């Protein structure tokens, strides 16, 4: 039997793994009608508001104009500021009459105002005009913080002033101021009657800013290059200087991360979108995190929580990340602004912070304070400005202070006279000036509400009241210079003597500066976008021949291609193909059975001789051989053919699907590939048992009786012959291989003799051992037998064990070849050709016929129960589980997984967005050209501030 198992090992060396080797491997302002010409009809208060704005604008524009005139005469800003007084008084005299006319006109009616304004407009030299909004000034503190009672003119005092003189007494400029005061009073009364929470929000303002903010967002989504950057306001300051409080005061809600352990770890890019209440009942105020799915977050405490989580997610070992958090806040109470909150400058790192943290924060801030951004340098009033990290940083990049606004927080913590002197900016002058605020969020019933999960109230009103209390009353004399001082402006006081206070003033200041800055960037950005757009169009033409694609079309094409590939490969599963595969599997089984029952049986030679006996009738053949044939037939039919054949076909299908899922383009879509494999395998699992049972049932009859026709016998015998030819050829080639290895025929012969001797000696040893065990007297006889091993001529080249192994294998192949040739001859004998009744003489032919019948029947049922079902269901499952199951986001993600498609989509998207931005910019440029005097075009940001 040892020999039998060795022979099986030899046979298995020839058994090719049954596999489907042929399965491929790849199985913006609607430029508001200029406010001066805007329709006025919304009632006296609105009307007064307009006038106030107009007069305020006119007054400030006059000053700007004067300063521009002065500027024309002086090269340096510092010379302007020191030399302005004489020029200013003469300039004031020359335009005072016009302003008086204007103020009178204001008192009369709207058209009077417009006419007066137009007169003034025409009369004043615009050395530095710019957009209508640029000509507007927001630097009038009186508009935001009501003048103190002592100085606040009552409405019936509107024609008077502090000295009890009429406007005429003090000249036209004072007259204008009186008109301004009267309107201020009316305006403030109106403001006081308004919803506390709602700050003064000139609805006509900032359309340009809004459009450019929209454009900025589009540009940011396609390019981070400096050429395509529009300005933003960057908030810098030392830790705890009050940056967050200022931003929250502007927004009107507490929403920024708070905590002791440096909770601002990432830049927060904040876009405020003024969204008037549309009366639809939807949320009036909400935040949107574009990076987190773009859902509306209507609760400011939730926004705060999200921001805190996103910040503290930065590991303390890194402490600061440059990856910005984008947040949009929509509210009827916010202006259109873009702001960036940055981590506060620190002096020294604490124990749990990296040592280089100070430098990291500094370089992060440095990246943001580059042009064209506006720097909001937040300094605490109770800390000497000389120690302000924010001012130091801004000076490095903006030495002239042309794009830096100083915000002095915590004004309540210093004496008012000290606070006012800081705001005058004499020590560290900034052209955009300093604004003093008291922006600490009030604690009150609102806080409790938040703590209990309620909606947070708007804090703007409370902050404004607190600021009014602080900057008004007794302290007003420091922050609101008396009228004589204001007039003093005209008699030579420095512009720097003006102080700006209050969060609302700051808000307006920011709106104005940002708008002016944006407006100044208009031409530059338009040119840059034009260039980028042309380049993108060119690339799109060259690379893709203007062929547009969509993520949806890519998904659809991919699915179609998948189905087509699947269909193509299914041709390998036609019935003849499947039958051939099953036949190959069963033929292999037949060989195993023959080997097991015949080839290792010494009497097989005898069977071959009996076949030559012409007189011997089949029924006369010894029952031994007939019984052997029945056993062989049972082994074949009862070997689990149903399961094995179904498994084989299912494996083929699995390999097919796997090869498709692993091939292009699914190499880019591992998620989809996994899903395809998953559901297809599940489908196969579902069908496997059912099909196997069906097949097993259908082949059941063959387990008991196999009827064979002559025709079937002939082809069975022919196939058996072929199988034997192949087996003989394999044995011969194997022997030739060994012969070559050992060094030729005679050496081979010697080796076989050597092995034969060894076997004989082994047999002798076994015999002696057996005798020794049976005979106690010769108990030590195992040691007595002489050593039988004799050296082989090749033993100097190979070890005895190697020689023995090679020899044994050679002997096995040699024996196998002998028996195969014997049976080959029998198959070709006359008896075997006679027909199926000779089956006991020719078991090879009989088993071949049975294998063919099993393969045929199995194929038929596998085709019906497995293949047809799978081929029908697979394409439908692809549709339902992949195509129809993807939402828009998933489709986009799927398409972008393919780098080729991603590149195509990115360029197409870039081209489209640049074209869209270009259209918006072009309409803004056109509108500006239509609405502006030729001389006032193309002015930069800072011209008006000189
Ligand atoms: N008295 C007073 N306290 C203020 C004022 N503004 C802010 N604070 C307080 O100053 C502390 C720091 O204010 P924040 O706004 O958190 O300062 P910050 O610069 O954002 O701090 P970091 O984000 O840690 O850098 C808080 O306790 C505020 O309540 C103010 O105008 N007056």
TrEMBL record:
Keywords: Disulfide bond, GTP-binding, Hydrolase, Magnesium, Membrane, Metal-binding, Mitochondrion, Mitochondrion inner membrane, Nucleotide-binding, Transit peptide, Transmembrane, Transmembrane helix. Its EC number is 3.6.5.5. This is dynamin GTPase. PROSITE patterns: G_DYNAMIN_2 (PS51718), GED (PS51388). One of its GO terms (biological process) is membrane organization. CDD domains: DLP_1. It is found in: Mitochondrion inner membrane; Mitochondrion intermembrane space. It catalyses: GTP + H2O = GDP + phosphate + H(+). SMART domains: DYNc (SM00053). Residues 125-175, 770-791 are annotated as: Disordered. Residues 836-929 form the GED domain. One of its GO terms (molecular function) is GTPase activity. InterPro entries: Dynamin, Dynamin_GTPase, Dynamin_N, G_DYNAMIN_dom, GED_dom, LIS_MGM1, P-loop_NTPase. One of its GO terms (cellular component) is plasma membrane. Signal peptide: none annotated. Residues 227-523 form the Dynamin-type G domain. Residues 773-784 have a biased composition (Polar residues).
């Amino acid at each position: 039997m040892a020999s039998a198992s060795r022979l099986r090992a030899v046979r298995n060396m020839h058994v090719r793994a049954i596999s489907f080797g042929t399965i491929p491997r790849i199985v913006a302002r609607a430029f508001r009608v200029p406010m001066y010409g805007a329709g006025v009809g919304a009632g006296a208060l609105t009307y007064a508001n307009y006038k106030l704005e107009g007069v305020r604008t006119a007054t400030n524009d006059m000053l700007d104009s004067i300063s521009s005139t002065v500027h024309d005469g002086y090269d340096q800003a510092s010379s302007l500021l020191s030399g302005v007084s004489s020029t200013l008084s003469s300039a004031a005299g020359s335009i005072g009459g016009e302003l008086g006319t204007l103020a009178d006109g204001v008192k009369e009616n709207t058209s009077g105002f417009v006419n007066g304004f137009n007169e003034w407009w025409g009369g004043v030299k615009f050395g530095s005009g710019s957009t209508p909004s640029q000509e507007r000034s927001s630097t009038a503190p009186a508009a935001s913080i009501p003048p103190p009672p002592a100085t606040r003119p009552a409405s019936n005092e509107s024609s008077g002033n502090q000295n009890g003189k009429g406007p005429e007494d003090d000249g036209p400029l004072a007259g204008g101021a009186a008109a301004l005061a009267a309107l201020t009073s009316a305006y403030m009364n109106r403001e006081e009657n308004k919803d506390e929470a709602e700050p003064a929000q000139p609805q006509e303002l900032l359309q340009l800013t809004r459009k450019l903010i929209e454009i900025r967002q589009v540009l940011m989504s396609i390019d981070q290059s400096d050429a395509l950057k529009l300005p933003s306001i960057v908030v810098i300051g030392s830790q705890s200087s009050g940056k967050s409080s200022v931003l929250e005061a502007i927004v009107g809600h507490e929403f920024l991360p708070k905590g002791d352990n440096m909770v601002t770890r990432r830049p927060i890019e904040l876009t405020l979108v003024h969204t008037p209440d549309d009366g639809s009942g939807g949320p009036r105020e909400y935040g949107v995190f574009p990076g987190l799915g773009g859902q509306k977050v209507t609760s400011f405490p939730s926004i705060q929580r999200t921001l805190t989580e996103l910040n503290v997610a930065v590991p303390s070992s890194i402490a600061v990340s440059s990856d910005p958090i984008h947040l949009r806040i929509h509210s009827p109470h916010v202006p259109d602004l873009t702001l960036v909150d940055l981590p506060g400058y620190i002096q020294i790192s604490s124990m749990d912070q990296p040592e280089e943290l100070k430098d990291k924060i500094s370089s992060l801030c440095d990246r943001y304070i580059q042009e064209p951004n506006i720097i909001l340098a937040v300094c605490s009033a109770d800390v000497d400005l000389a120690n302000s990290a924010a001012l130091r940083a801004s000076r490095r990049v903006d030495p002239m202070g042309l794009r830096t606004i100083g915000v002095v927080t915590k004004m309540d913590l210093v004496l008012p006279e000290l606070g006012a002197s800081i705001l005058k900016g004499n020590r560290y002058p900034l052209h955009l000036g300093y604004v003093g605020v008291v922006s600490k969020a009030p604690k009150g019933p609102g806080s409790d509400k938040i703590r209990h999960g309620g909606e947070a109230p708007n804090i703007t009103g409370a902050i404004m009241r607190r600021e009014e209390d602080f900057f008004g009353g007794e302290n007003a004399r420091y922050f609101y210079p008396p009228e004589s001082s204001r007039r003093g402006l005209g008699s030579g006081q420095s512009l720097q003597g003006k102080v700006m206070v209050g969060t609302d003033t700051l808000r307006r200041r920011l709106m104005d500066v940002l708008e002016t800055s944006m407006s100044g960037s208009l031409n530059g950005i338009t040119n840059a976008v034009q260039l980028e757009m042309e380049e993108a169009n060119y690339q799109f033409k060259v690379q893709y021949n203007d062929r547009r694609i969509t993520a949806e079309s890519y998904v659809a094409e991919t699915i179609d291609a998948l189905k087509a590939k699947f269909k193509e490969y299914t041709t390998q599963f036609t019935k003849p193909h499947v039958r051939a595969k099953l036949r190959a599997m069963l033929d292999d089984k037949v060989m195993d059975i023959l080997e097991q029952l015949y080839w290792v049986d010494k009497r097989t030679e005898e069977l071959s001789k009996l076949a030559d006996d012409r007189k011997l009738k089949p029924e006369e053949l010894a029952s031994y051989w007939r019984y052997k044939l029945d056993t062989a037939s049972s082994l074949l039919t009862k070997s689990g053919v149903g399961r094995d054949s179904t498994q084989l076909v299912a494996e083929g299908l699995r390999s097919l699907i796997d090869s498709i899922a692993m091939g292009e383009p699914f190499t880019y879509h591992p998620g989809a590939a996994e899903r395809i494999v998953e559901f297809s395998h599940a489908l196969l699992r579902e069908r496997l048992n059912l099909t196997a049972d069906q097949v097993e049932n259908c082949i059941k009859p063959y387990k008991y009786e196999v009827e064979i026709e002559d025709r079937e016998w002939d082809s069975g015998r022919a196939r058996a012959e072929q199988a034997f030819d192949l087996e003989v050829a394999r044995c011969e080639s194997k022997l030739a291989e060994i012969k070559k290895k050992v060094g030729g025929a005679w050496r081979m012969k010697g080796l076989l003799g050597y092995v034969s001797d060894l076997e004989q000696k082994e047999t002798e040893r076994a015999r002696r051992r057996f005798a020794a065990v049976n005979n106690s007297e010769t108990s030590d006889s195992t040691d007595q037998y002489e050593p039988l091993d004799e050296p082989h001529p090749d033993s100097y080249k190979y070890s005895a064990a190697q020689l023995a192994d090679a020899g044994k294998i050679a002997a096995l192949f040699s024996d196998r070849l002998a028996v195969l040739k014997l049976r080959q001859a029998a198959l070709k004998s006359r008896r075997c050709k006679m027909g199926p009744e000779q089956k006991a003489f020719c078991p090879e032919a009989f088993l071949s016929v049975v294998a063919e019948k099993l393969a045929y029947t199995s194929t038929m049922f596998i085709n019906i129960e497995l293949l047809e079902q799978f081929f029908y269901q697979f394409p439908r499952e692809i549709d339902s589980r992949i195509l129809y199951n993807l939402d828009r986001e998933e489709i986009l993600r799927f398409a972008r997984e393919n780098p080729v498609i991603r590149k195509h989509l990115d360029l197409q998207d870039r081209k489209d967005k640049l074209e869209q931005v270009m259209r918006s910019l072009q309409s803004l440029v056109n509108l500006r050209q239509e609405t502006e005097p030729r001389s006032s075009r193309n002015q930069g940001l800072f011209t008006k501030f000189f």
